[in-house]
Write a structure and sequence with these properties.
- Helix 1 packs across helix 11, helix 7 packs across helix 8 and helix 16 packs parallel to helix 17.
- The chain is of the alpha/beta class and 531 residues long.
- The two termini are 21 Å apart.
- It has a 7-stranded mixed β-sheet with strand order 1-19-18-17-14-15-16, with helices on both faces.
- It has 19 helices and 19 strands.
- The chain has 3 domains: 136 residues, Periplasmic binding protein-like II (D-Maltodextrin-Binding Protein, domain 2), CATH 3.40.190; 155 residues, Periplasmic binding protein-like II (D-Maltodextrin-Binding Protein, domain 2); 182 residues, 3-Layer(aba) Sandwich (Rossmann fold), CATH 3.40.50.410.
């Protein structure tokens, strides 16, 4: 199986009283906001007494008010660095995590436990709260389908999708644990597995899984961006995510927890074995407080997650009915095989135009960095994916525009061609951002229904040539509705104009990625969760 996609940390955030800059992945970013790729914020700095350095799932930013109260009660301040679950696992396995953190706080340790190389590096897992995977459906769709929300099964969901009666959005399982948990839930439910998923179960369920994922119209590296995009898309009926996220999504959603079982996140605060004695004592004080009835009530009221302490009632907004807990895959090979199958077989293929600034200002080191980033990115292109390189200067350099499709029978061929053509890029001319974006939309045309389409814009300067911003706005608004569903993901790089690029992202439903504080490689890789 091809190597796992590198998962990128981005977005500086703070919790409790700190405003410490922390590298944050877009995975399950509750705000869906702008990202920066691996900013360096001196992570090796030792923690002050009473400070706990935590590698955390970014969805836990909603715990800020609870952690502030915990600081007042215990004197322990949480200093977080956010990352996707699978990225955090890689950091723990490699030993990098123990050099920078005292503890990890992920939505689940299920995948972590499949890695024997992490066993000696973690200790003292303390579940703090729970939230099951669920489906949030527009109420009118529930009525149209005639469903009783308390009795819907994964089989019924599959039948509705296969019949073209239900579409949905879901986060990328390789970047987001909510997406991974959803993938395991669907595979378990449709395979009829009575115990932990096996390779045979996945093979048995593959035809149904392929039909189910044909109904996925939105993909994302973060829950926040997914919810924002969902609000723009009247053609998407539902979202698959954690129950707590769905209940926090603006707009009315009927939350369905399939009656034949779900995977549940339990958010265990987990100490790293290498943590100092002081950090371990701080973690014990923190977890003891978080499991008090008072804190558990505050957690369920604030985050809409479920308490783990007996006698504490969940928020009134949470369904009290019991559901079967689906088992997690019993081996890493099954989990990795399921991820690989999703990427290369089950999900819709991607179709992306990379609009690349190769103006005169990109000469020298900047162009070298672009070539290196593209060469590294090629290893991550999925089977069946269509990739177009569209370099531009004063206009689109039409003689250098190339399109490639990754053939599952010979994926190396397209990857090698992309690397070779990227290596031949040269810098010349002005900067025609808007004219080039217009050509990208025209090249995509009326996109087929079975692909995820997107445009990635990398520029190191302001628009100087061709179409003006207002003209592009008018062009975009005149596009057919289906084409307006193609987002632009701009990358802030060099001397590019943040305001200009933020406007492009907002207009098209995309998201800005910041390579000025991190690496260009990181920005390209992070965008992969949205393609």
């Amino acid at each position: 199986m091809r190597s796992r996609t590198r998962l990128l940390a981005a977005l500086a955030l703070g919790l409790a009283l700190t405003t410490t800059a922390a590298s944050c992945s877009s995975s399950d970013d509750p705000k869906g906001g702008q990202s920066s790729s691996r900013p360096k914020a001196d992570p090796t700095a030792p923690a002050a007494p009473g400070t706990l350095r935590v590698l955390a799932s970014s969805e836990l930013a909603d715990m800020a008010p609870v952690l502030e109260e915990a600081r007042e009660a215990t004197g322990v301040t949480v200093r977080p660095t956010y990352a996707g679950t699978l990225d955090a696992v890689e950091q723990i396995a490699s030993g990098r995590a123990e050099k920078e953190y005292d503890a990890v706080w992920l939505s689940s340790n299920d995948y972590l436990r499949l890695r024997p190389d992490t066993a000696g590096r973690i200790t003292n897992e303390t579940p703090v709260m729970t939230s099951p995977v669920a489906l949030g459906v527009r109420p009118e769709v529930v009525t149209r389908l005639g469903w009783d929300p308390g009795k819907v099964t994964w089989s019924q969901l599959h039948q509705a999708v296969a019949a073209g009666k239900l579409t949905y959005g879901m986060t990328d399982p390789k970047r987001s644990n909510s997406g991974f948990s959803a993938l395991v839930s669907v595979a378990s439910g449709l395979s009829g597995a009575q115990s932990a998923l096996t390779d045979q179960d996945v093979r048995k369920a593959t035809p149904k899984l392929r039909e189910f994922f044909a109904g996925q119209k939105l993909t994302s590296g973060s829950s926040g961006w997914l919810a924002t995009s969902y609000a723009r898309r009247a053609d998407v009926d539902a979202l698959v995510n954690y129950e707590s996220v769905l209940l926090s999504t603006p707009g009315a959603l009927t939350v369905i927890r399939p009656s034949d079982g779900v995977v549940t996140a339990d958010y265990p605060l987990t100490l790293l074995t290498a943590a100092s004695a002081g950090a371990k004592e701080s973690a014990q004080r923190l977890t003891a407080y978080l499991r008090t009835p008072e804190a558990q009530r505050r957690i369920t009221e604030t985050t809409l997650r479920r308490p783990v302490v007996a006698g504490v009632e969940p928020s009134p907004r949470l369904d009290r009915g019991l559901r079967r807990e689906l088992p997690f895959p019993g081996s890493r090979s099954v989990a990795d095989g399921l991820l690989d199958a999703y990427d290369n077989t089950l999900r819709r293929p991607s179709r992306t135009v990379y609009v690349l600034d190769t103006s005169g200002s990109m000469g020298g080191e900047r162009l070298t960095r672009l070539k290196e980033a593209l060469a590294e990115l090629t290893e991550d292109f999925r089977d069946r994916e269509e990739v177009t390189l569209m370099p531009f200067g004063s206009t689109v350099k039409t003689g250098e525009v190339r399109a490639y499709t990754v053939d599952p029978k010979d994926p190396a061929k397209a990857r090698e061609a992309i690397r070779a053509d990227a290596g031949r890029l040269t810098a010349s001319g002005g900067t025609a951002i808007y004219s080039s974006l217009t050509e990208a939309y025209r090249s995509l045309g009326a996109s087929p229904r079975d692909t995820f389409t997107s445009i990635v814009l990398m520029t190191d300067g302001e628009n100087t040539d061709g179409m003006k911003g207002g003209d592009f706005d008018a062009f975009f608004r005149d596009l057919p509705a289906g084409q307006r569903h193609t987002p632009v993901f701009p990358i802030l790089f060099g001397d590019s104009d943040r305001v200009e690029l933020e406007h492009i992202a907002d207009l098209t439903g995309g998201k800005l990625f910041d390579a000025t504080k991190g690496s260009l490689n990181g920005a390209f890789e992070e965008i992969r969760g949205y393609q």
